[in-house]
Design the sequence.
């Protein structure tokens, strides 16, 4: 043990420094790639033209219409109904592909129909040729494409501004011709980005996604190569991991079973803070039950759009609302259970609990209840058009639907949770080397608010490709990585505390 650690009374590092170095290298390489992707996303996002014109120079729609249409799409919860660029829910259509398919069919029909080879090739040329002028920021469309825009504006009016619930939405979910025009402009821009060729390349701004045979949108070589490489890396990496653990016996391997025994539950006295977590688990169970019910309701829409066993529930609980609640409640019940588990395990790890943990736990539970029910009501009110705005209502991004106020409040609540854990663990942390289990437990907990806070970079008015990149940070880093990291350390500590395995 180093002399400085001996003087501080710190326990030795229980794992080899090589593990720490390898973990640090993985983090550095991973985040280098993510930062590089962020840079490339900002540099290479599909441009939003200031104006889109027909051959005569008449303005069809503007860049402000596109941005406003994106806000309409999100505000009305349509990302939890359909999708853009394939990102969203899937009861409704992918509006990028829907517009691309319908508009290319109209163009081909006006050029001579599907029976004409020249009409098919001219349609492909019109949709693949990039006529955007970066100097004037003007995008000219062909006469046929301009005609398709007008016809599809009427189509989306019939679809999204009709007095019916037969699509699983509220009657007239999008209000009036202005919003329909803006929404159609947003769909038109997304289909343009998905089909037109990126300057200097033989594929579109979205790597020909979504695929559409009518405009010859097929998977590019890059898509095929990197998809294959990712599968090889995944399967090969798992194989290498098992081989290394088997060859050098780096894992548990079951050899501790003969020497360790479980602690009797009666030998563990509950602290006041631990007793408070019973209410967290009760709330978690209630949220899980509610999430299951709205999940069943959303799945029923896939079987019967006309009603819920004869009841027309779409007037009150349309699909996009119950799908929003289903996703949000999943996050809420998981967050509630993790918060409770952290508070429960902290005194068992530290061997003591400071005064006031119970009060702080109940304060956090109250704040969590405010966030949960406040955000659910805000989403309900916003989708029902009781008010408009992303502060208290519905931001509209899948996994980040809750209003910005509730999002910030949840981040603050998770930071308070980190403070509660620090109060409980600081005595133990001062005696441990960073890399031992108490520090791993604490740092994994801090990663939860840190990476959820990335969602604050998601803004409805930004270019959709940029804002969806940061949303994917929340989905893939927070939901699919750092929640699992805390789960791993938490389960490992439970095994150690139960005496199933040695801490080393």
Sequence:
């Amino acid at each position: 043990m180093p002399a400085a650690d001996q003087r501080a009374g710190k326990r030795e590092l229980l794992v080899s420094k090589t593990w720490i170095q390898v973990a640090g290298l993985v983090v550095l390489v991973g985040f280098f790639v993510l930062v590089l992707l962020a840079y490339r996303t900002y540099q290479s996002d599909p441009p939003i033209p200031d104006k889109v014109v027909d051959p005569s120079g008449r303005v069809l729609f503007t860049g402000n219409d596109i941005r406003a249409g994106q806000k309409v799409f999100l505000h009305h919860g349509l990302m939890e109904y359909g999708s853009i660029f394939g990102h969203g829910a899937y009861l409704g259509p992918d509006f990028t592909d829907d517009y691309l398919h319908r508009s290319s069919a109209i163009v081909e029909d006006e050029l001579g129909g599907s029976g004409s080879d020249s009409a098919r090739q001219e349609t492909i040329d019109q949709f693949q040729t990039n006529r955007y002028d970066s100097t004037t920021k003007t995008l000219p469309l062909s006469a046929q494409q301009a005609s398709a825009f007008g016809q599809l504006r009427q189509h989306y009016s019939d679809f999204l501004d009709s007095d019916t619930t037969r699509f699983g939405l509220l009657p007239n979910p999008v209000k009036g011709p202005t919003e329909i025009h803006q929404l159609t402009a947003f769909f038109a821009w997304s289909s343009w980005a998905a089909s037109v060729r990126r300057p200097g390349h033989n594929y579109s701004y979205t790597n020909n996604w979504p695929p559409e045979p009518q405009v010859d949108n097929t998977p590019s070589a890059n898509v095929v190569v990197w998809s294959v490489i990712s599968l090889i890396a995944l399967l090969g990496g798992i194989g290498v991991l098992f081989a290394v653990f088997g060859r050098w016996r780096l894992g548990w391997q079951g050899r501790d079973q003969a020497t360790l025994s479980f602690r009797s539950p009666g030998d563990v006295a509950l602290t006041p803070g631990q007793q408070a977590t019973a209410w967290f688990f009760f709330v978690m169970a209630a949220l899980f039950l509610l999430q299951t019910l709205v999940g069943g309701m959303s799945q029923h829409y896939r079987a019967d759009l006309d009603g819920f066993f004869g009841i027309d529930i779409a007037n009150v609980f349309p699909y996009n609302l119950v799908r929003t609640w289903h996703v949000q409640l999943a996050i809420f019940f998981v967050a509630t259970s993790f918060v409770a588990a952290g508070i429960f395990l902290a005194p068992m790890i530290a061997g003591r609990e400071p005064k006031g943990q119970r009060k702080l736990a109940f304060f956090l539970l109250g704040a969590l209840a405010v966030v949960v029910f406040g955000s659910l009501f805000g989403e309900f009110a916003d989708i029902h058009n009781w008010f408009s705005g992303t502060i208290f209502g519905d931001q509209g991004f899948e996994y980040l639907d809750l209003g910005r106020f509730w999002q910030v409040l949840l981040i603050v609540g998770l930071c308070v949770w980190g403070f509660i854990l620090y109060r409980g663990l600081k005595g133990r942390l001062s005696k441990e080397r960073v890399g031992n289990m108490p520090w791993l437990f604490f740092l994994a907990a801090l990663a939860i608010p840190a990476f959820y806070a990335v969602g604050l970079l998601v803004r409805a008015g930004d270019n959709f490709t940029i804002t969806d990149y940061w949303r994917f940070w929340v989905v893939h880093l927070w939901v699919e990585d750092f929640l699992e990291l805390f789960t791993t350390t938490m389960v490992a500590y439970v095994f150690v505390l139960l005496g199933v395995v040695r801490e080393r």
